[in-house]
Design brief:
- The complex is a heterodimer of chains A (402) and B (302).
- With 402 residues, chain A is of the alpha/beta class.
- Chain A has 2 domains: 246 residues, Rossmann fold (3-Layer(aba) Sandwich); 132 residues, Rossmann fold (3-Layer(aba) Sandwich).
- Chain A is 42% helix and 19% strand.
- Chain A contains 14 helices and 16 strands.
- In chain A, strand 15, helix 14 and strand 16 form a beta-alpha-beta unit.
- The longest helix of chain A is centred in the middle third of the chain and has 33 residues.
- The N and C termini of chain A lie far apart (59 Å).
- Chain B has 302 residues and is an alpha/beta fold.
- Chain B has one domain: Rossmann fold.
- The longest helix of chain B has 24 residues.
- Chain B is globular and about 60 Å long.
- Classes of the chains: A alpha/beta (402), B alpha/beta (302).
- Chains A and B meet through helix 4, helix 6 and strand 9 of A and strand 1, strand 2, helix 3 and helix 5 of B.
- Strand 9 of chain A pairs parallel with strand 2 of chain B.
- The structure holds thiamine diphosphate (TPP) and magnesium ion (MG).
Chain lengths: 402, 302
């Protein structure tokens, strides 16, 4: 195993999450990039521009005039049969919204990096998941990376997944603003030749724009056909559940990296309480878990690596074995709690009666430390002891709740 | 000049499409596709053409078509062009085919971006002077005085001179055309096909429904538009501007421009202003200004 890994053309660089993503686009031999700057994503597309202009990466780079156009150009390029990539944040992602539906409905395996940033107004460039969570129902597969290596690996894995004949859906990989995007960590980068073995050249077997085999895509369909088209997208989401575990195993075999599949547990085997959190909130939860365990709190953490399709099975099996779930949401569904809390409760409904306590944290980039998470765990424990079953609260609110 | 007899017999716009009788846009598309040929990929934003293609699983267009969002014709075409180049697919023309709403209004940003970047696409706008698909609302192309459902007493503003905005982008080819002159239109698409980079063709496409004239008069109305000077046929290539067809004859004094009222009076949409002398004079003034400007421009570019 180790010997195999050693032979690979690889290097370990100390780089930001944004550069890790740019290197991933290069390793994946992305053929068309269409992108527009926005803080804190910008250094991804700057780095790719540098790769392309210095001849390190053989891609067409379309410097579009908006994110709507960025995604439209990715749709065009992917429809023409090429591997397409873009990256954005916050306002840019919202601006793409119409085209996100388009990319998914046209079944185009576009991969995008989303550096999670708060939605205006007011302006705020810090980490917050409202941007990506708001795109939940567009038909995109959603990943949340918890470190820079995972961001790199997930981009490559995502192409492999999205380009599967039974999937053909787009995916985005989320990185927490600044916490990952601008923080340097060691990342192992693989040569294109090695990645080729895992990720062959994209071949559009379902449909493409080809003058020798002309098709019309996207003209009017009656309700008769539309209904099944929507169903088939959901079918493909279900197929992701079958396919992605194999892809992650194969990636581990080849490159030695393992980030879990849909979720990844930390000290959950004997845990009575489990924190469920995406991205860097999970990493911070692990620190809190270690601290709390020193005081004999029987706690573990579960990384929500994939948000769509939602890993209900993983959540149910964890819920069955523990006494309480704690969810951390860095976004809100105004008028009805936080999205992860809601989805976790919905996933276990009728399967287990495990109490779920939800917490809104870190909105607009407010710091979430292991101390905060420890306080949250104490709060949830008190609720559990009081016999409560479920609640959703704003942790650390500086104004009084009515 | 080419005669209709010299054009390819093969139809790439197939019979059985869903256009209204007398649709000027489909005359234009038919000849545009004859000129561009089979190695063409089309991308179509929301407009009448999205409907005209017919219902899935059928289509009435024999080249590949990607239907796309209203604002996204140019950006998508840029993406297609880049995707083909990434795959070394040569000698395929990427044609964005959009209405005036999708071009003058919601799509102008993407179009301007593609033009500025020099992307290798032909962008053709069939201009029926209104939002046809949604039932005839005003657009940036609707002329002064014209009725639409959102300008029920006649539009108070003139149209936006989009062709000049595109010319100012300094792209290799800009032309105007009209559905009533398929030979002129065919030649322009033929020429555009051979040029690399962004090419823009704006086609006046009379619409019997929006303009309120009988469906058999489409060609006649188009001819009156050019004969009255309300629509000017020209072509900009290699830094030179030339008038073409009847507009060339008018420019050279070989054909006398007819009063614009002769063009307006056959169209129900101008009813709000037909008897309003001031309004008619205002339209004439605008036509004369445009001609003056175009003639000066031609001289300046000599
Ligand atoms: C973002 C968006 N806004 C509005 C619409 C509704 N819509 C569809 S076609 C159209 C008008 C198209 O007008 P034009 O571009 O002139 O083409 P025509 O219908 O005249 O052929 C409108 C407003 C849409 N599809 N998308
Ligand atoms: Mg129109």
């Amino acid at each position: 195993m180790l010997g195999k890994v050693k032979k690979l053309g690889k290097k370990t660089l100390v780089i930001t999450g944004n550069y890790a993503v740019a290197y991933a686009a290069k390793s994946a031999r992305v053929e068309v990039v269409a992108a527009y700057p926005i803080t804190p994503q910008t250094s991804i597309v700057e780095k790719i521009a540098e790769f392309v202009e210095t001849g390190l990466m053989n891609a067409k780079y379309i410097r579009v005039e908006s994110e709507h156009s960025a995604m439209a150009a990715c749709v065009g390029a992917s429809a023409a049969g090429a591997r397409a990539f873009t990256a954005t944040s916050s306002q840019g992602l919202a601006y793409m919204h119409e085209m996100l539906h388009w990319a998914a409905r046209a079944r185009l395996p576009i991969v995008m990096a989303v550096v999670n940033r708060a939605m205006a107004t007011p302006w705020n460039i810090w980490s917050d998941h409202q941007d990506s969570m708001s795109q939940r129902d567009t038909g995109w597969i959603q990943f949340y990376a918890s470190n820079n290596q995972e961001a790199y690996d997930t981009v490559i894995q995502a192409y492999r997944l999205c380009e599967d004949e039974d999937i053909y859906l787009p995916a985005f990989i989320c990185l927490d603003a600044f916490i990952l995007s601008h923080t340097s960590m060691p990342v192992t980068i693989h040569d294109e030749e090695d990645v080729d073995k895992f990720l062959p050249k994209y071949e559009a077997r379902h449909w493409k724009l080809d003058v020798d085999n002309p098709v019309t895509n996207g003209n009017i369909v009656t309700p008769d056909h539309y209904y099944e088209m929507s169903w088939s997208m959901d079918e493909s989401m279900r197929y992701v559940k079958k396919k992605f575990p194999e892809i992650c195993e194969e990636y581990k075999e080849l490159f030695g990296q393992w980030h879990g599949v849909f979720t990844k547990g930390y000290k959950i085997d004997d845990a009575e309480y489990v924190i469920i959190a995406p991205g860097t909130l999970f990493e911070e939860s692990c620190v809190a878990v270690d601290m709390l365990r020193e005081n004999n709190v029987p706690i573990g953490a579960l990384k929500l690596r994939v948000y769509r399709p939602f890993p209900s099975e993983d959540i149910i099996s964890v819920a069955r074995k523990c006494k309480m779930l704690i969810t951390l949401d860095r976004a809100l569904s105004y008028g009805f709690n936080g999205p992860i809390f809601n989805d976790v409760r919905s996933a276990i409904y009728g399967e287990t009666g495990t109490p779920v306590f939800g917490y809104a944290v870190g909105l607009g980039g407010r710091d979430v430390t292991f101390n905060d998470i420890s306080s949250i765990v104490r709060d949830a424990t008190l609720k559990l002891e009081k016999g409560l079953h479920s609640s959703f609260v704003y942790y650390g609110l500086k104004v009084g709740e009515k | 000049m080419v005669s209709i007899r010299d054009m390819p017999k093969e139809e790439l716009l197939l019979p059985g499409h869903a256009a209204c009788p007398g649709c000027g846009a489909m005359i234009a598309l038919r000849y545009a596709l004859k000129a561009l040929g089979k190695r063409t990929i089309m991308c179509v934003p929301a407009c009448c053409t999205s409907v005209i293609q017919g219902l899935y699983p059928h289509t009435s267009i024999a080249v590949p078509v990607l239907n796309i969002a209203f604002a996204a014709a140019a950006s998508t075409a840029s993406g297609i062009s880049a995707g083909l180049k990434a795959r070394n697919v040569e000698d395929v023309t990427v044609l964005a085919w959009a209405g005036d709403g999708g071009t003058y209004d919601i799509g102008i940003q993407a179009l301007s971006g593609a033009a500025e970047r020099g992307d290798d696409i032909i962008y053709a706008c069939y201009d029926n002077n209104a939002y046809g698909n949604t039932g005839i609302q005003r657009s940036g192309a609707t002329p002064y005085g014209a009725w639409t459902t959102t300008t029920p007493t006649g539009k108070k503003e003139h149209r936006k001179p989009l062709e000049l905005i595109m010319l100012e982008h300094n792209i290799p080819y800009v032309a105007t055309a009209c559905s009533a002159f398929p030979d002129d239109l065919y030649m322009k698409f033929k020429k555009a096909r051979k040029i690399k980079g962004p090419r823009f063709i704006l086609i006046l496409s009379p619409c019997p429904i929006a303009w309120r004239f009988p469906s058999w008069s489409t060609v006649e109305i188009g001819k009156l538009a050019v004969k009255s000077g309300a629509w000017v046929l020209w072509e900009y290539h290699n830094g030179k501007l030339e008038f073409t067809g009847w507009s060339k004859l008018i420019a050279e004094g070989k054909l006398k421009k007819i009063p614009v009222i002769e063009y307006l009076k056959h169209q129900g949409r101008f009813k709000p202003i037909l008897k309003d002398e001031k309004a008619i004079n205002e339209i004439e003034r605008r036509i004369n200004d445009y001609w003056k400007f175009m003639k000066a421009l031609k001289e300046a570019l000599k």
